[in-house]
Fold Malate dehydrogenase.
Amino acid sequence: THAPITITLTGAGGQIGYAALFRIAAGDLLGPDQPVALRLLEIPQGMRAAEGAALELADCAFPTLASVEIADDANVAFDGANVALLVGSRPRSAGMERGDLLAANGAIFGPQGRAINDRAADDVRVVVVGNPANTNALIAQQHAPDVPSERFTALTRLDHNRAVGLLAAEAGTPVADISGVTIWGNHSATQYPDLSHATVRGRPALDIVDASWARGPYIERVAQRGAEIIEVRGGSSVASAANAAIEHTRDWLLGTGERSAGHWTSAAVVSRGEYGVPAGLISSFPVTSAGGNWSVVEGLDIDAFSRERIDASVAELAAERDAVQELGLIP
Ligand code: NAI
């Protein structure tokens, strides 16, 4: 048997937390042979909900669940953390100005980044789910100078999975037939779901679906899928978001395996200047994972349409970075 891996989840009393905790505890993240020690971080208003989730976790008697601890202090919650899932955030509410949104999140992700820096395990890997996810990840990273910068990532796996699912539906084929879909840029309405390298059973997707659909309504539908879920379900994406966070983390730690051969996924990782994305921005790319590290899939042809869409989303990321810099939230 292995020593437990410590997983800290922030926003554990919230909806995504509730959907994620039971799957993680059941072994969906690291398999049935790897015990997990859960640390739940909440703010005082979320404490009772987190405590309730912990009671239900106990009632599941999961053999893979080594322990559950709840804290409202980041220094306690991140102590020894191997994985940090940063779900709790201050998302945009109606009428909120961008500066207010970024400042509210700076007050959350700055101190959490600092606590990760000071307390987490040497191998800590951070996945930011709470919006604005890419920029929150950047804020946390900039407060953790002792942690390798590439350990901070943001979730675009839900966008990726939505993009795969909607392509499969249009092509009338199971999702298992699809590969080579990419989400580029920001986890926001400017994201670019790119089918120019996608294949369906090995054939170019753009030979199977209408190219004008792929470059118009498809992009819009993927980018607006969260709003569509709210409209239909009467609430935001929860189980699919928790699933995506688990898949991102699982692939990062355990590797993308044989899917690497022309089959990649999407994650927001720190740019080293790939595809003209300014170094240092945390942007979504086509990625594979091996040995606990993400690698950007390099050498893909970027046509004029893709170039324009990638540049537009990356420009938004750069503007968010500039804004948090001006607010003094990052150096
Ligand atoms: P929720 O409101 O149900 O839960 C958020 C929880 O975070 C609350 O319990 C709150 O008390 C807690 N929280 C707030 N500040 C905190 C802090 N400083 N430390 C610890 N906990 C804190 O929201 P839900 O539905 O669980 O969504 C969480 C976030 O995930 C939102 O920002 C949402 O926009 C984002 N999201 C991101 C997706 C992605 O693909 N990247 C997809 C879906 C949601």
About this structure: The chain has two domains: 5-154, 157-318. The chain has a mean pLDDT of 96. The pocket of NAI is lined by residues 10-11, 13-17, 41-43, 45-46, 87-89, 91, 108, 129-131, 133, 155, 158, 187, 236-238, 241 (CB under 6 Å).
